[in-house]
């Protein structure tokens, strides 16, 4: 969805979405994903089924969750008799994630990116991997040096797998997009049960600075103990430095 777009009340959901329609372009993006014949894939917001059509030959089983009843009805008709496909009509944010291993491939509504990523990355059953088409600016936030990136990096390797020009969408949004790749770490940098505590630590530190949680001497000692460089004068910190300070803070204040 383009930034700052407002639609009149009662506008159907499909009218506020941006669809990839080029079959070659969709195949190129799916080709960047590690999806095989034994994988259960979850597609969020399949829309008119352009991506669904290309995912089906690649995966073992596909679950597609569509909120818009008009689009869902069209999908049911288009893919009638397709045994590998389970169509769910409803809100993905209320949908229980699969109990077994699964991967995600989806063209997300730009306005829903944060909420969907929150559900996937903070879930008790996270995906093994996800390839999400999102606004390029959002992709940069999740791969950059800020809170959004550092909060998920203990658990996922994240990168921009491809950039997608806005001209590949219909209707054309006001911004370019990207294919954001997340791969769940087999051995996370922190236990999953500390995820909420770590995020709270980061939120407070980003809001008030790391010295709101640790003294200057404690910060220097923690980084020195781990063989990490001291803080820069501008206060910018790398992911490994934040991780180090969280562990130190938890050791002495928990």
UniProtKB/TrEMBL annotation:
Which CDD domains does its entry note?
AdoMet_MTases
Cite the entry's keywords alphabetically: Methyltransferase, RNA-binding, S-adenosyl-L-methionine, Transferase
What do the Gene Ontology cellular component annotations say? Answer: cytosol
Q: Which GO molecular-function terms appear in the entry?
A: RNA binding; rRNA (adenine-N6,N6-)-dimethyltransferase activity
Keyword Amino-acid biosynthesis recorded? no
Q: Name one Pfam family in it.
A: RrnaAD
Ribosomal RNA adenine methylase transferase N-terminal domain ranges (all copies)? 25-186
Residues that bind S-adenosyl-L-methionine, according to the entry? 18, 20, 45, 66, 91, 107
Respond yes or no to whether keyword Methyltransferase is given for this record: yes
Concerning its family, UniProt says: Belongs to the class I-like SAM-binding methyltransferase superfamily. rRNA adenine N(6)-methyltransferase family.
Cited PANTHER family: DIMETHYLADENOSINE TRANSFERASE, DIMETHYLADENOSINE TRANSFERASE-RELATED
This protein is called: rRNA adenine N-6-methyltransferase
Q: What lineage does the source organism belong to?
A: Bacteria, Bacillati, Bacillota, Clostridia, Eubacteriales
């Amino acid at each position: 969805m383009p930034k700052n777009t407002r639609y009149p009340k009662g506008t159907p959901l499909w009218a506020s979405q941006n669809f990839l329609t080029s079959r070659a372009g969709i195949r190129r993006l799916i080709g960047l994903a590690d999806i095989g014949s034994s994988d259960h894939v979850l597609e969020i917001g399949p829309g008119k089924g352009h991506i669904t059509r290309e995912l089906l030959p690649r995966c073992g089983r596909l679950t597609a969750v569509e909120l818009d009843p008009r689009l869902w009805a069209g999908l049911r008709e288009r893919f009638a008799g397709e045994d590998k496909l389970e169509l769910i009509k409803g809100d993905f944010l209320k949908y229980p994630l699969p109990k077994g291993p699964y991967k995600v491939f989806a063209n997300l509504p730009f306005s829903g990116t944060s909420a969907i990523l929150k559900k996937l990355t903070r879930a008790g059953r996270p995906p093994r991997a996800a390839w999400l088409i999102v606004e390029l600016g959002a992709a940069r936030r999740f791969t950059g040096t800020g809170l959004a990136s550092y909060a998920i990096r203990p658990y996922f390797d994240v990168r921009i797998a491809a950039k997608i020009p806005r001209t590949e969408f219909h209707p054309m949004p006001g911004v370019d997009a990207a294919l954001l790749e997340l791969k769940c770490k087999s051995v996370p940098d922190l236990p999953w049960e500390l995820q909420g505590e770590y995020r709270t630590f980061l939120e407070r530190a980003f809001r008030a600075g790391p010295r709101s949680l640790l003294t200057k001497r404690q910060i220097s000692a923690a980084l020195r103990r781990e063989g990490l460089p001291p803080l820069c004068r501008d206060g910018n910190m790398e992911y490994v430095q934040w991780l180090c300070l969280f562990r130190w803070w938890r050791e002495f204040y928990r």
